[in-house]
Amino acid sequence: MRHPLLLVILAFVVWSGTFLLVYATQATGCSVGWHNDEIAFWRSPLRFILIVLVIIGLVAIVGTLAWLRRRNTLTAALETSTFLDDVKTYVAIGAIFSSAFCFAGVFWLTLCPL
Amino acid sequence: MLWGSFALFTLVLGLFLAAVLVPRFGRGVSQTRWIILGGLVLPLPVLTGLTFYAFAEGEFLLKGAVSEADEVLEIRATGRMWQWQFSYPSVSGSPVHTDLLHIPAGRTVEIIAESEDVIHSFWVPRLGGKIDAVPGHSNRLRIRADQPGRYGGICSEYCGTGHAGMQFEVQAHRQEDFREVVTGGFRHD
Asked: Do B59 and A109 touch (CB under 8 A)?
């Protein structure tokens, strides 16, 4: 059985994985020079890769929220309290806003030292 | 920034003390509203403002502060247990300085952080961000002091028993004095 407290932090675990992936890719891309070329819309391959990773991460967190809500509905009748279900939902919504806020910089911030 | 943090601290502590000491203070506000106001409405604008201020400062140092690449002064910062050594590749005749970094005020400086042994981290809190000094790598960080003065620096990555004492000083000089100071031809206090 999945521990309810682990499910509370699940959305931010996905957020952490996205952060790690974006950070590692940015560092690697800068090191090997993926930021030097422009492939389309005056954007470099590195920026495109980071944008794709952020979108995948965002979709994964939204998917986590949808899965938690569906699970909450299925298990509601078996549980004595819905408090933790509410917390899971709010935490997942927080993770979605946090992702949009933290990772938006990949669209417009300078990616590497000049 | 200091006064802003002082105002926020006073506000939060004032509300806390009022809730504890003043009879029936805040009872008219529901628990949910307290959480939303104190946990979201108060910190979100502050954090958003600080974040975008940091973004703007970072972009300024990378792009806006210099019109041509050669206006950036490169300084090599090498960490070793437990001291920092600073060398100036573009200033001929300059010796290596230990635990003392000279920079020109009003000019963007690019620190090339390296390490001879373990991972260190170069950090001058008042001049901007920090960067890890990793053995085998050269990481770059731009800093800028608008005014001449002294600024404290420290290693911010635990690197052994001498980590806490691995401090250095940054001295920002007037641009006309900088070269003489670095080459040792200018005596300063």
From this structure: yes
| Least CB–CB distance from A105: residue in B55, B110, B140 | B55
Contact A110 B51 (CB under 8 A): no
Q: DSSP 3-state assignment of B82?
A: coil
The whole-angstrom separation of Cα B25 and Cα B29 is: 9
Residues of chain A positioned with their CB less than 8 A from the CB of B48:
101
Q: In which residue are the tokens 């980071």 written?
A: A50
Whether residue B75 contacts residue B109, with contact meaning beta carbons closer than 8 Å, is answered with yes
Complex ipTM, two decimals? Answer: 0.72
User: Higher confidence at residue B133 or residue B1?
Assistant: B133
Ranges of chain A with pLDDT below 70? 1-2, 40-42, 76-77, 79-80, 114
Residue ranges matching CATH 2.60.40.420 in chain B? 70-183
Q: Which of B139, B72, B141 is nearest to B108 (CA)?
A: B72
Hey, are the CB atoms on A114 and B58 less than 8 Å from each other?
no
Question: Given CB atoms, is B138 within the 8 Å cutoff of chain A?
Answer: no
CA-nearest residue of chain A to B72? A114
| Triad B44, A66, B43: Cα angle to 5° | 5
CATH class of B70-183: mainly beta
Contact check, Cβ <8 Å, A114/B51: no
Listed by start position, the domains of chain A span 4-26+37-107
pLDDT in tens, A18-43: 999 999 999 899 888 888 877 766 67
Q: What whole-number distance in Å separates Cα of residue A35 and Cα of residue A43?
A: 8
